[in-house]
């Protein structure tokens, strides 16, 4: 129903009410305890309402977000953040509602155990409530006075009507005609302006979609480049084995020919067994190289959208090595410890391997970037990386899997700098990145979030500053 409402408004070119519609949908999902969907629509409502400077919708949305984080003691800091945003909106619009915002501040600080702040904002709420009440009293008194004055004027008008009713009717008719013409003119001009504004908005929307598509493609190609660099390193090992055993077999065949000429049949049999074993090794490493190439092709081509039974442990192990060697190919000084902890009881699960592979590759690349960034921050300018390693910090990335009931958990953990709490709520938003300009599009985690949701799963993050981060994927079996 909510999607139909938004689709109808969008097709009709009516964009401003979309903020209010998204806010209501977010509130519905909040009541249904579907927190992730509620937050998604609240963020959309904020974006649309901010664009149109619709302070009423912003006030309502920030109020709902404040109550969302206050409910069930979810996150007092986030509640305080959105209460402050609500307060800024009220100051900007000059509307009422300060007392409710101050009460929200008091409740949030009560959750944090800050009694001084609780008393402060309770006092501000009472003052704001009294001020609003006094304003209402003054307004009602003014309205009463205006009502008495209007009654006297009406009596005077009625008296004049009785004296010259026909002339008054003519004046009223002329006034109505002129007013109707003015209203028609205003409506016509307003309609023209709206049509022009809609054309501009539609053009901007098309350009934004095109830019977004291009950025998404850039993100995919960036991950493909890192993957290809890792594959180049991985495929070299089995190729070396194939080449070495092929050379050995050539020598053994020459020796077998010489032994045949001498009539040493037993020695020939021994040489043939050696050749056979070498051929088996060549076949094994050839298949290994073939599997690596097939994995690259699977990652590079567009997803078929069809789920298939996949060994999730093998997928994680493969992308761990490819991600690491891909970064090593770009920066030879990069180094980190890789650890795995796989639950062998999982077996195969139905997923789209290309899509889940992209998610794992993105999380691992971010983890390696985080530990490398912390390592470089720890060392003085122009110092060797080994100097920082000698001071006790060992860059480490751990990927693990675990089966719990009817879910499979995939964890990617690093001991980097962690994610600052002030940006934690934004990391899954499109185009948001903590990397320096030019080193990230801000689409990696957003695409990963969409892929996991499409699989009916969830992706969450746990982080502590200066201790590291852990991204946890939950997928249904």
Please explain how this structure is put together:
By secondary structure, this protein is of the alpha+beta class. It is 71% helix and 10% strand. A hairpin with a 3-residue loop joins strand 6 and strand 7. Helix 2 packs parallel to helix 4 and helix 10 crosses helix 11. The radius of gyration is 35 Å and the shape is elongated. The two termini are 30 Å apart. The relative contact order is 0.05. The mean pLDDT is 78.
The poorly predicted ranges are none
Helix content: over 70%
β-strand amount: 5-15%
Shape: elongated
- N-C termini distance: 30 Å
Name the features:
7 strands; two-stranded antiparallel sheet; alpha+beta; elongated
Q: Would you summarize the structure shown here?
A:
The chain has helices at residues 2-11, 16-31, 35-52, 55-70, 76-93, 98-112, 115-163, 165-262, 265-300, 312-330, 353-378, 385-390, 444-454; strands at residues 308-311, 337-341, 348-351, 396-404, 407-414, 458-464, 468-476. It has 477 residues and is an alpha+beta fold. The protein is elongated, with a radius of gyration of 35 Å.
List the helices and strands and how they pair.
Layout: H1 2-11, H2 16-31, H3 35-52, H4 55-70, H5 76-93, H6 98-112, H7 115-163, H8 165-262, H9 265-300, E1 308-311, H10 312-330, E2 337-341, E3 348-351, H11 353-378, H12 385-390, E4 396-404, E5 407-414, H13 444-454, E6 458-464, E7 468-476
Parallel strand pairs: 2-4
Antiparallel strand pairs: 1-3, 4-5, 5-7, 6-7
Helix pairs in contact: 1-2, 2-3, 2-4, 3-4, 4-5, 4-6, 5-6, 6-7, 8-9, 8-10, 10-11, 11-13
């Amino acid at each position: 129903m909510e999607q139909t409402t938004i689709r109808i408004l969008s097709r009709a070119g009516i964009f401003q009410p979309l903020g209010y519609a998204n806010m209501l949908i977010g509130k519905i999902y909040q009541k249904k305890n579907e927190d992730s969907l509620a937050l998604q629509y609240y963020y959309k409502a904020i974006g649309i309402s901010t664009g149109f400077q619709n302070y009423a919708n912003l006030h309502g949305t920030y109020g709902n977000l404040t109550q969302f984080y206050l409910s069930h003691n979810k996150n007092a800091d986030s509640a305080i953040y959105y209460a402050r945003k609500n307060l800024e909106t009220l100051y900007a619009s000059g509307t009422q509602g300060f007392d409710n915002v101050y009460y929200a501040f008091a409740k949030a600080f009560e959750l944090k155990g800050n009694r001084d702040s609780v008393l402060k904002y309770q006092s501000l709420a009472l003052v704001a409530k009294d001020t609003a009440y006094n304003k209402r009293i003054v307004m009602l008194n003014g309205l009463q006075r205006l009502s008495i004055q209007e009654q006297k004027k009406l009596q005077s008008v009625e008296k004049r009507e009785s004296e010259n009713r026909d002339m008054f009717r003519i004046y009223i008719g002329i006034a109505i005609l002129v007013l109707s013409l003015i209203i028609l003119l205003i409506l016509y001009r307003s309609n023209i302006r709206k049509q022009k504004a809609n054309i501009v908005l539609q053009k901007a929307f098309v350009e934004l979609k095109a830019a977004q598509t291009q950025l998404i493609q850039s993100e995919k190609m960036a991950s493909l480049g890192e993957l290809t660099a890792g594959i180049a390193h991985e495929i070299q090992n089995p190729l070396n084995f194939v080449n070495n055993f092929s050379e050995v077999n050539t020598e053994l065949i020459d020796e077998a020919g010489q032994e045949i000429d001498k009539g040493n049949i037993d020695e020939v049999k021994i040489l043939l067994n050696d050749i056979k074993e070498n051929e088996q090794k060549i076949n094994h490493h050839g298949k290994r190289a073939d599997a690596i190439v097939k994995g690259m092709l699977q990652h590079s081509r567009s997803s078929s959208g069809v789920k298939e039974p996949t060994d999730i442990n093998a997928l994680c192990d493969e992308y761990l090595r490819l991600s690491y060697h891909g970064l090593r190919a770009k920066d030879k000084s990069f180094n980190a410890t890789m650890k795995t902890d796989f639950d062998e009881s999982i077996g195969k699960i139905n997923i789209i391997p290309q899509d889940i592979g992209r998610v794992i590759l993105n999380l691992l690349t971010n983890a390696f970037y985080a530990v490398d960034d912390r390592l470089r921050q720890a060392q003085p300018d122009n110092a060797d990386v080994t100097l920082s390693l000698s001071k006790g910090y060992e860059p480490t990335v751990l990927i693990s899997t675990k089966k719990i009931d009817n879910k499979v958990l995939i964890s990617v953990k690093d001991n980097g700098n962690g994610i600052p709490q002030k940006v934690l709520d934004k990391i899954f938003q499109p185009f948001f990145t903590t990397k320096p300009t030019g080193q990230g599009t801000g689409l990696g985690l957003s695409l990963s979030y969409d892929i996991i949701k499409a699989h009916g799963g969830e992706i969450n993050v746990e982080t502590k500053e200066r201790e590291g981060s852990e991204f946890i994927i939950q997928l249904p079996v």
